[in-house]
Amino acid sequence: MDFLAQYSDGSDDDSKGAHGATGSNVSIPPAMTTLVNAAPAVDTIALRREQYVDPAAKVVFTNPKFDTLWTQAIGPAHPFHKEGVNKGLANHLTGHVETMNLGHFQFDDQYHTFHNYGYAANPAQSGVVGDVMSAHLFNGASVFGSKAKPNEIVASKKRKPQGRAGEEGYLGPWAPYEGEDEIKEAAQLTEEQIAYIDEQAKKKQKSEKRAAVQPTSVFHGKEQPAGQARPVLQPPSGIKPPKEDEHVCYIPKRWVHTWEGHTKGVQAIRFFPKFGHLLLSASMDSTVKLWDVYNNRKCLRTFMGHSEAVRDVWFNNEGTQFLSASYDRNIVLWDTETGQSVSTFSNKKVPYCVRVHPDADKQNIFLVGSSNKKVVQFDTRTGDVVQEYDEHLGAVNSVTFVEDGKKFISTSDDKKMFVWEFGIPVVIKHIAEPSMHSIPSVAVHPGGKYLAGQSLDNQIVVYEAQGRFRQNRRKRFTGHINSGYACQVNFSPDGQFVMSGDAEGKLWFWDWKSCKNFRTLKAHDGVCIGVEWHPVDSSKVATCGWDGLIKYWD
Question: Which of 510, 518, 513, 464 is nearest to 489 (CA)?
């Protein structure tokens, strides 16, 4: 109220004087203001007593106490800075952290055991942590371990009396536990199991039947006078092997004869070496037949020594003996003249091809390409397996000798071609390309420098038969359809023409130099699987097919 009493309505001069600008003795105090402090109350005295240590500092120049070092940081947590255990510190607010390798299953096992039974295994030392009484009661068992039961409840099972041996009711070590059934009913076989047992029994009987087949032969011609030496093998008079320079071949134009007698398809045919006056045929009716080519062209002898289809046949150099390979897993050596079986060979696998060594001194050696991915070498004198060439990854389809028998080439379902040194089971040349297909048939050019392979991508490919065995990409014979069929490829004796059958029953002829198709003949109703050029007659060709016929072309 005193301030109001001192207030006056004086002039500006008076007001100036009121502020002390004039010589007035009246003093007016300044306006009163209120100070507002929004900061929280902080015990600054305690802060002064404790020394602050920066957590990020690398060097400390004082000796702080333990409480100071482990004092909780004041202020909000940094959004990107890790603290405590996340930062990798061993000591943190709830204890000391140690790194330990523990599998997921072990961790889950102890975790659930602790939450169910109240204890868990101590990772630092032996024993348990948690409820020790509960651990003693359950023998320290875990949730996923042995079934936990209190000691008071667990009771060992007791077996029933075994009895004495020889007495009635003797159980011995098979005595059941108390409370279990003494006799359990025998499990009944299902229909599928019974059918499987019957199937296995039939297979066993079939294999026994294969082994029981006795090789025999039937002669269909007239009996020869006694003392006449080997009349069948003797070629007709006037037939002589032509010289290499004088042998000029021509492509046949017409079909002149058909040999009938096989009840199923014919798989392979072979002319008699050098003269070709006899023709050997292997059929799927499990027989091999010998046919006359020049005279009455009838079947001379039937060889019956297999229980399954015959896959391949091959003469020796003189034609006195030949080998027949069948799906019954046997290779039989026959005498061409008498028809008797000399011996039987087997490696318990299906033979796909058989070849006699071309060297005159090694006529007792032959190679077999079999289904067990091996080329097996047999000796006819001992009947034993002399060597095995094991490198292929699929069944071996063909074996072809090159360089006068010093080397041989094998092809397989694994789409590879291997070159071997004869007698050494090590591959000296691998021929395998991503674009290659399986080559089931191979034929060597009469000149000996090249070989042709029937590729299953509907073409015939050519490789060198010596040196580096490189592919001749300029020579390729196409037009026929052979995909999926092991159609035989072959050459004319003068090497001028290449011929092959195909899946449509056609007979194809190509020129060796130009690779052009010269002629195509409709040979068989089914697959034309085998083709052979006569070794003497320059324009005659024999073909066989799955229609069971053998045709002669001129």
Answer: 510
